[in-house]
């Protein structure tokens, strides 16, 4: 039997924990009121897990009313997660879709401190990706990487800290760097490639980390630029990279709604992409967004490659008939 002192302490901690997680959740719901609140929005998975633990502890302690409060917190936390874990992906005759028919995109924040370019290159070569988006690729890293990627002779890159690079095995129709905010520090790489006769545009992005009012405002400007670029694009478009933003943020959902883009990960789980070193606090801030021309076959994360991020891999197809065309 547990000692009374231990039970009293556990009881107090469980109640305080329930109140604390609820406060975090309420802050997350106010993400567009002030920039610090939006940071709380990214940990919905952790809130849901904590509420489950707290509800179980409170049930054991026979504090049923507080356990109901924790259970309610779990319900509120889990609602935005359901489309990722419970929805049925749009069917595109996946059974008849071969790897050769799908477009594979890999997106990976290399990390400017990563010294293992050989392992990164080996993974990219083995991935058989049609396009690869790399973030935080420095000039010295690029010089090491390029000779190790014989399958990807075509590329466009900006090696600034918030720049991006796109590599492909397919012929390139056009490539350019696109500033995304007035600060000029975030530069997207836009490449149009010829994929089996179909022009496909890949936009590689690395949005500002929204710590502080200025950076948060820049990040919002960058999202607005992505919305504008996406709405102006007429053909198949993929936007991939490090958004420094999870799907649980209202800014993310608003950008999707306004742009007409769709999250390729819907229906394929809650896999974290950052930080690679510590799964319990992992969140997914690396994404592949797709225009209405695409349907997602699968989206997953790759192995640890010396970065604080994990790569994401998305397989997509263009159905024979696109709605509205």
From TrEMBL:
InterPro entries for this protein: Endo/exonu/phosph_ase_sf, Endo/exonuclease/phosphatase, TDP2-like
Keyword annotations from UniProtKB, A to Z: DNA damage, DNA repair, Endonuclease, Hydrolase, Magnesium, Membrane, Metal-binding, Nuclease, Transmembrane, Transmembrane helix
GO terms assigned for molecular function: endonuclease activity
Residues passing through the membrane, by range: 41-61, 66-86
Signal sequence, start to end: none
Domain Endonuclease/exonuclease/phosphatase, chain residue ranges per copy: 106-309
SUPFAM superfamilies, sorted: DNase I-like
Needed cofactors: Mn(2+); Mg(2+)
Keyword check for Transmembrane: yes
PANTHER family the UniProt entry points to: TRAF AND TNF RECEPTOR-ASSOCIATED PROTEIN, TYROSYL-DNA PHOSPHODIESTERASE 2
Protein name: Endonuclease/exonuclease/phosphatase family protein
């Amino acid at each position: 039997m547990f000692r009374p002192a231990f039970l009293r302490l556990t009881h107090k901690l469980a109640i305080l924990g329930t109140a604390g997680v609820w406060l975090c959740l309420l802050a997350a719901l106010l993400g567009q009121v002030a920039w610090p609140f939006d940071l709380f929005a990214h940990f919905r998975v952790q809130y849901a897990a904590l509420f489950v633990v707290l509800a179980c502890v409170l049930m054991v302690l026979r504090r049923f009313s507080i356990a109901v409060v924790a259970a309610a917190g779990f319900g509120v936390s889990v609602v935005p997660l359901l489309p990722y874990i419970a929805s049925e992906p749009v069917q595109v005759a996946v059974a008849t879709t071969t790897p050769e028919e799908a477009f594979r995109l890999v997106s990976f924040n290399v990390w400017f401190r990563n010294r293992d370019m050989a392992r990164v290159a080996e993974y990219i070569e083995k991935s058989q990706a049609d396009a690869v988006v790399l973030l935080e690729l420095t000039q010295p890293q690029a010089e090491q990487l390029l000779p190790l990627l014989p399958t990807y002779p075509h590329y466009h890159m900006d090696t600034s800290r918030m720049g991006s690079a796109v590599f492909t095995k397919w012929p390139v129709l056009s490539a350019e760097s696109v500033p995304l905010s007035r600060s000029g520090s975030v530069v997207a790489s836009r490449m149009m490639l010829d994929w089996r006769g179909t022009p496909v545009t890949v936009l590689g992005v690395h949005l500002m980390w929204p710590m502080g009012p200025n950076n948060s405002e820049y990040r919002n400007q960058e999202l607005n630029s992505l919305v504008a670029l996406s709405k102006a694009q007429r053909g198949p478009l993929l936007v991939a990279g490090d958004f420094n933003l999870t799907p649980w943020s209202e800014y993310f959902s608003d950008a999707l709604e306004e742009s007409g883009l769709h999250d390729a990960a819907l229906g394929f789980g809650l896999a974290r992409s950052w930080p690679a070193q510590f799964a319990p606090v992992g969140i997914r801030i690396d994404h592949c967004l797709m225009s209405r021309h695409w349907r997602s076959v699968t989206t997953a994360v790759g192995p640890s490659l010396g970065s604080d991020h994990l790569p994401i891999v998305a397989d997509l197809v263009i159905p024979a008939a696109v709605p509205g065309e």
